[in-house]
Amino acid sequence: MADRRRPTHCKDCGVALTSETKHVSRTRTYADGTPWYHSRCVDCYRAHARAKARDYRRRHPGRSAAAPRAYRDRRWRQVLDHLGLEAWICSRCGATGLPRACFDFHHRNPAGKSRRIAEMIQGAPMEEVLAEVDKCDLLCATCHRLTHWEWTHGRWEPGSEEAA
After folding, report:
1. Alpha carbon of 93 to those of 32, 42, 143: distances in Å?
2. Binning pLDDT at 50, 70 and 90, where does residue 65 land?
3. Mean pLDDT of the chain
């Protein structure tokens, strides 16, 4: 009798599931630690996932993209409030009026960096995000690149307050 935990053929297209075509779950395993195999090949699994996502977006039009964007915008607003700023302003050149994507948080001491703030905004506790923000300077992208150029060319040391 075949092992029922490991399907041998894709249930959609019927192709034989080999080590190249089978889709292994990234999160599920059996109690004994063996991997859990999906009953679809990789291509059919991706097509099925895309169809499910498309169906979800059709049934829930307000939840698909707007809710996470509003959540991130609220959290970025909290960061600005914590810094005491009304808008994104470069602490080096004073540039303002640019979109958020044009600004970077520069860690004064790279050794003290725990994670990227943009990653933390997605769901880390706000206290952790604000603690990490306190270790940084808000710079426009140009000033951030210049600061790192000056650092690599020996014009300032990490941990010092200002670039030369």
Report:
1. 59, 50, 7
2. low
3. 83
Tokens of 83: 């810094």
CA dihedral 89, 90, 91, 92 (to 10 degrees): -150
Task: Say if CB 79 and CB 130 are below 8 A apart.
Answer: yes
- Tokens 């996470």 locate to 68
> Measured on CA atoms in the order 66, 69, 65, 53, is the torsion positive or negative?
negative
* pLDDT tens-digit readout, 122-158: 888 999 999 999 999 999 999 999 999 988 887 665 5
Rounded to whole angstroms, the Cα distance separating 72 from 125 reads: 13
